[in-house]
From TrEMBL:
Entry keyword annotation includes Transmembrane: yes
InterPro entries linked: DUF4350 (IPR025646)
Transmembrane as UniProt keyword: yes
Ranges annotated as spanning the membrane: 23-42, 317-337
Name of the protein in its database record: DUF4350 domain-containing protein
Species this protein is from: Novosphingobium mangrovi
Domain DUF4350: start-end pairs: 64-281
UniProt keywords, alphabetically: Membrane, Transmembrane, Transmembrane helix
Length: 384
């Protein structure tokens, strides 16, 4: 006879961990960093579309945009910022507004009025109606993203904002006189002189409260200071003209209106005279490099409201967010340094007859009918 060894079941053993500690740590850190980056992008709007859409604002790189002006000021050392919300539009410095022609005049008036006691305000009126470049221009002329074609001109319609000030629009080349001094495309003011990049469509302002700062060859006002009783810069033009406003509020900072956008937009900033005009204007308005300059983008459709993500990182909720982050890091570290791999758990239900006996015993135990078991148990024992 031959004997065979009978295997004996041993205790449950732990399963080996399929991932090393370094791999788990790398996956957790990479996933956490990507998640935080996603939350930051959602909260700030970064990466969800560019402002270079061909519009007339500080992020537009077309002829009607003002990206060149913003880049020039930043290169000169000014603190440049883009205003995407109401909290960004009250800096202790210069606020520049470039609203579109169909903007809400009451909203413009609200923004300007709220900032007049914080710093100077510069409002640039629009003129051009632009269209994106065609696919043919992209291929043949190598047009870049955000470039536009100047289709036509349109004056602004801002009902509710300076209704006593009108903006005129006309063709300068047809009205230009023979003498160069009467050229409507030539401008002068603030000690600087130059010529507009085009002379077929010009824009100017009209109003009794306007103090001319920049005029063209025909005497039309291209840029002006509003006479509303506020403080005025040290300008010869202001000294020569008596004030018309009956209100005298020295705490109110000046408001400058630019009716001809080609003085400051990308179309005009190609000429050095526009940069010199900015330098002289900022010096007269006492805008220095240590003061911030904010370009408003809310009126151009790039406004952002506060959401739960932005509130989570601002006081007083920043402390709660920090505590939750530290708790999550603590739980993750505790799970990472746990002692050994997890042991194999026991089965909740046993196999075969053992399961039947266990279930029957559990039923008797729960019913507490022990006295009913004596006679059947004794009869079974006698039979065996």
């Amino acid at each position: 006879m031959s004997s065979h060894a009978i295997p004996v079941a041993g205790p449950a053993s732990a399963q080996p961990n399929p991932f090393s500690r370094r791999a788990v740590l790398g996956i957790v850190l990479a996933g956490g960093a990507l998640f935080v980056l996603l939350l930051w992008m959602i909260g700030t709007g970064t990466g969800f579309g560019s402002g270079n859409d061909g519009g007339g604002h500080a992020q537009g790189r077309g002829l009607n945009g003002y990206a060149a002006m913003a880049q020039y000021l930043e290169a000169r050392g000014y603190d440049i910022d883009m205003g995407h919300g109401p909290d960004d539009l009250n800096p202790d410095g210069l606020l520049i507004l470039t609203p579109p022609a169909d903007a809400d005049g009451r909203e413009i008036d609200r923004i300007v009025s709220a900032h007049r006691y914080k710093g100077a305000t510069l409002v640039v009126a629009p003129k051009w109606v632009a269209a994106p470049v065609t696919d043919k221009q992209r291929s043949e002329e190598k047009a870049e993203r955000g470039w536009v074609n100047l289709v036509s001109a349109r004056p602004p319609e801002w009902r509710g904002f300076l209704d006593d000030v009108a903006v005129g629009l006309g063709r300068g080349s047809e009205e230009k006189a023979s003498a160069q001094k009467d050229d409507p495309a030539r401008w002068k003011g603030l000690g600087v002189a130059g010529r507009l990049p085009q002379d077929h469509v010009l824009a100017w302002g009209e109003g009794e409260r306007l103090i001319p700062l920049v005029t063209n060859g025909k005497g039309q006002i291209l840029a002006a200071l509003l006479d509303d009783g506020g403080s005025y810069p040290d300008l010869e033009e202001v000294a020569q003209r008596p004030r018309r406003s009956e209100v005298d509020d020295e705490d109110r900072y000046p408001l400058v209106l630019v009716f001809e956008p080609d003085l400051l937009d990308n179309f005009g900033m190609a000429r050095p005279q526009s940069a010199a005009l900015i330098e002289d204007l900022f010096e007269r308005l006492e805008i220095y490099e240590d003061g911030p300059i904010v370009f408003d983008l809310t009126l151009n459709g790039f406004g952002q409201t506060k959401n739960l993500l932005t509130l989570a990182v601002t006081p007083p909720f920043a402390g709660v967010s920090l505590c939750l982050l530290l708790a999550a890091l603590l739980v993750g570290w505790r799970g990472f340094v746990r002692f050994g791999p997890p042991a194999t758990p026991e089965r909740a239900l046993a196999f075969g007859k053992q399961a039947l006996v266990a279930n029957a015993a559990g039923l008797v135990r729960r019913s507490r009918r022990y006295h009913l078991l004596r006679e059947p148990y004794a009869a079974r024992a006698r039979a065996r």
